[in-house]
Design goal:
Layout (H helix, E strand, L loop, with lengths): L2 H31 L8 E6 L2 H10 L7 H4 L4 E7 L2 H12 L5 E7 L12 E11 L2 E13 H16 L6 H23 L1 H30 L3 H17 L2 H23 L1
Parallel strand pairs: 2-5
Antiparallel strand pairs: 1-2, 3-4, 4-5
Helix pairs in contact: 5-6, 7-8, 7-9, 8-9
The structure holds ligand 0O2 (2 copies).
Length: 267
């Protein structure tokens, strides 16, 4: 097959990866907008390189005209989570969607691979609307924690270096590193509530500061420079020494001031 032909075949996969990235990033954004903690930390995606497609097809004896039906990870999405139980929350979110049809799932967290690899895989069938009509493609979703991702990234590079196979001695060290990464996941799960409280506090604080700053700008636009400057210095003082309650009180005060001066401006 010529490169031009490959490029044509890969178009719907590229589109699927872009669309799926947007969809999963939107879930994260929505949680954040609601001042809630997202089970999704970050999302990446890629279309498999032509050379890797050919290599995998050869390894599994897939004829070129069957690649689109039998190679499930030409379109690949990776969803990273902070905590192991977030992975299962993301799985539930995906199971409840109507725009992705799950073909099958592989839980490499319960069924750890020989190498030490852990992740949750979902193979989905996804509709893509191209210029020439609707087409269904297969995509692989890999859902994992930050620690699992760290390990898999390192192991992947070593696999690349040792084309003939990673030496046994390094393999057993890698296995130990995978178990250490999983122990880390378990340890942070034990203090998850503490971590989430701290993150939530941070989210609430930054949202209050954004609101107050926007109100200060409104006061300036209403010509209330003196009041705006007063609120600005109150805000700076609270940011350096105050707490969240003081921020909430300041927000209420400035909201009242905006209502008052807006009323005066329009009367
Ligand atoms: P933001 O503002 O950083 O959240 P893209 O095409 O750029 O949307 P791509 O090319 O698929 O995404 O993947 P890329 O560039 O590897 O990373 C995708 C997103 O994941 C980027 O965020 C990265 O910042 C983020 N990312 C990658 N590695 C890490 C990591 O180790 N930790 C964290 N927290 N984030 C990471 P965005 O989407 O550009 O936006
Ligand atoms: P790439 O470069 O990441 O795309 P396999 O039997 O592993 O060859 P299979 O049966 O199609 O492949 O599916 P499986 O086992 O679910 O693995 C699919 C993908 O999961 C792999 O794609 C990797 O991305 C990841 N993966 C699976 N096992 C390991 C592992 O031991 N280490 C790391 N780092 N990643 C793994 P590709 O095509 O192998 O590679």
């Amino acid at each position: 097959m010529q490169t031009r032909e490959w490029k044509r075949i890969l178009i719907p996969y590229q589109q699927a990866v872009e669309e799926l990235k947007v969809k999963f990033k939107s879930i994260r954004r929505e949680y954040r907008k609601r001042n809630d903690i997202s089970p999704i930390e970050f999302v990446t995606g890629r279309v498999k390189e032509i050379s890797s497609i050919l290599e995998k097809a050869k390894k599994f004896d897939i004829p070129l005209n069957r690649i689109e039906y039998e190679l499930e990870d030409i379109a690949g999405i990776r969803i990273m989570c902070q905590f192991v139980n977030d992975i299962y929350k993301v799985v539930e979110i995906i199971r409840n969607r109507k725009d992705m049809q799950i073909m099958y799932e592989k839980d490499y967290i319960f069924n750890v691979k020989e190498s030490g690899y852990r992740s949750y895989h979902m193979i989905i069938k996804y509709p893509v609307y191209t210029a020439f009509g609707e087409q269904y493609i297969l995509a692989e979703l890999q859902i994992r924690t930050l620690a699992m991702n760290f390990w898999a990234t390192i192991e992947h590079s070593l696999n690349y270096k040792y084309k003939q196979g990673i030496p046994v001695e390094i393999q057993s060290r890698l296995k130990a590193a995978a178990d250490a990464a999983f122990t880390l996941d378990q340890l942070v799960l034990d203090i998850k509530d503490e971590i989430m409280d701290a993150q939530k506090l941070f989210e609430v604080k930054s949202s209050l500061v954004t609101d107050i700053t926007n109100h200060i700008l409104t006061l300036i636009s209403l010509g209330r420079m003196k009041e705006a400057t007063g609120f600005q210095s109150d805000l700076e003082a609270i940011i350096s020494d105050g707490d969240i309650l003081e921020l909430a009180t300041l927000k209420e005060k400035i909201e009242n001031a905006v209502v008052l001066y807006r009323g005066k401006a329009f009367n």
